[in-house]
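Structure first, sequence second, as always.
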């Protein structure tokens, strides 16, 4: 697939899983209905959970702040996604598989229209004022990383940001929420880019789009035709093309040093939906209380791209898609998750989980379908048993395929063995903390080893020891 374009890509590793995007790529975004109860987790971002600032019994409005970002910490504010009554604050199911503190809201039968006040003439705002608006709006990285955006917009004073990159790759199979957002909201993306450039005083913006999304590529390219500071970059269809460091290497031919952040090379990367959320917050005054989510997978009766209120349970979205073609409940059990990933392999208590929040390469198998959509939820995917491999995990064959596929030039085979042997120091010395958890290693492993799970376990143990 070359389309006659000059395309770019990253140099090391990567894989080519099937797209599986055909069932939703051309479907317009429609609004989800509102469930009977909304569960809004206080932890939807990397860092410290927000602190609740409402109590049970209070009536809240759509867009009202209900969770405060913790001062001087990596944290983000939380807002109500509906108008209704707070009925409880306590633990509820979370996409990680554990119960987490949530604010539970019962929506009013009739949702009143809520107006917001923004700053259409944002160039009159100072960078600090824009950062404050973004902070108050509770915006985080919506591509899955969920790093608070106001902190990303605040690089160290000795770092000059020359360029920004807008990540329109959406390289994981099945997902099309960013694709549809580029097709349907190009002007809002441009506004968001202008705001980011103004805030960071950067000179150039590059919008990277894989060439399996030609309608999005042409739409965005047409929309920026009069924007001298913006350029659309066609990218090869390869996973993980949308990885932050891979994207910087592909577009600007710059290598971010290991264990360093992109601002070290004068660049910052923003997701498509994050960029739109910045425009909504600054120009329209709308905090982040909804996002676009792809509902896909052969097990669903109807696949869709939905605009979803944060806190909506997965079960409600599945029902809105007509439910399952067959009953998967016998394959879903409560308990602790573990990962054993080929593109669709997610093992759950030894049985086959069929519902994943996120993409199939990096998402989370769901033990409880009442876990809610959060700010970083890009998709809800449901698979029949026939699509989930059943091969038994075997010892490492020392074939080196995982090492060749690793886009970070690491040695997953060796690190995996070290984690199994609890040689955490040796795993750290091999660079396990540089792993981006993309899943390429597990995808190509002929022994079907749960390498992404081992990487996560090893990283978790290292970080726990450091905290201790």
């Amino acid at each position: 697939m070359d389309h006659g374009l000059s395309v770019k890509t990253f140099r090391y590793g990567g894989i080519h899983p099937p797209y599986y995007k055909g069932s939703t790529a051309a479907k317009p975004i429609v609004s989800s209905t509102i469930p009977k109860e909304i569960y809004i987790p206080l932890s939807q971002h990397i860092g410290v959970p927000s602190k609740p600032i409402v109590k049970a019994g209070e009536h809240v409005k759509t867009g009202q702040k209900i969770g405060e970002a913790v001062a001087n910490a990596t944290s983000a504010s939380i807002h109500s996604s509906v108008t209704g009554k707070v009925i409880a604050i306590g633990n509820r199911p979370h996409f990680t598989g554990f119960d987490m503190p949530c604010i539970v809201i019962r929506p009013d039968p009739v949702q009143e229209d809520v107006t917001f006040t923004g700053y259409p003439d944002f160039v009159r705002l100072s960078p600090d004022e824009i950062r404050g608006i973004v902070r108050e709006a509770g915006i985080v990285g919506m591509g899955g990383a969920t790093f608070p955006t106001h902190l990303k917009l605040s690089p160290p004073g000795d770092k000059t940001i020359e360029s920004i990159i807008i990540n329109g790759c959406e390289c994981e199979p099945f997902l099309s929420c960013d694709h549809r957002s580029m097709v349907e909201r190009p002007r809002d993306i441009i506004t968001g880019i202008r705001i980011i450039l103004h805030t960071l005083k950067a000179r150039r913006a590059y919008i990277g789009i894989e060439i399996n999304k030609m309608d999005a590529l042409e739409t965005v390219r047409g929309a920026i035709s009069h924007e001298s500071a913006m350029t659309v970059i066609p990218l090869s269809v390869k996973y993980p093309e949308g990885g932050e460091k891979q994207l910087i290497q592909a577009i600007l031919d710059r290598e971010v040093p290991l264990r360093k952040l992109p601002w070290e090379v004068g660049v910052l990367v923003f997701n498509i939906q994050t960029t739109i959320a910045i425009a909504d917050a600054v120009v329209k005054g709308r905090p982040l209380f909804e996002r676009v989510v792809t509902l896909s997978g052969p097990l669903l009766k109807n696949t869709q791209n939905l605009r979803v209120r944060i806190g909506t349970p997965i079960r409600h979205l599945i029902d809105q898609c007509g439910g399952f073609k067959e009953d998967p409940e016998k394959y879903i059990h409560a308990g602790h998750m573990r990962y054993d990933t080929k593109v669709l392999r997610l093992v759950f208590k030894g049985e086959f989980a069929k519902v994943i929040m996120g993409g199939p390469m990096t998402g989370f198998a769901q033990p409880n379908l009442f876990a809610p959509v959060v700010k970083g939820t890009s998709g809800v995917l449901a698979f029949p048993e026939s699509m989930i491999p059943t091969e038994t995990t075997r010892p490492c064959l020392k074939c080196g395929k995982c090492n060749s596929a690793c886009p970070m030039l690491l040695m997953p085979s060796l690190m995996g063995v070290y984690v199994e042997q609890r040689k955490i120091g040796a795993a750290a010395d091999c660079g396990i903390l540089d792993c981006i958890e993309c899943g390429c290693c597990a995808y190509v492993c002929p022994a079907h080893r749960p390498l992404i799970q081992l990487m996560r376990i090893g990283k978790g143990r290292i970080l726990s020891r450091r905290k201790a």
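Margin note: The longest helix spans residues 451-467.
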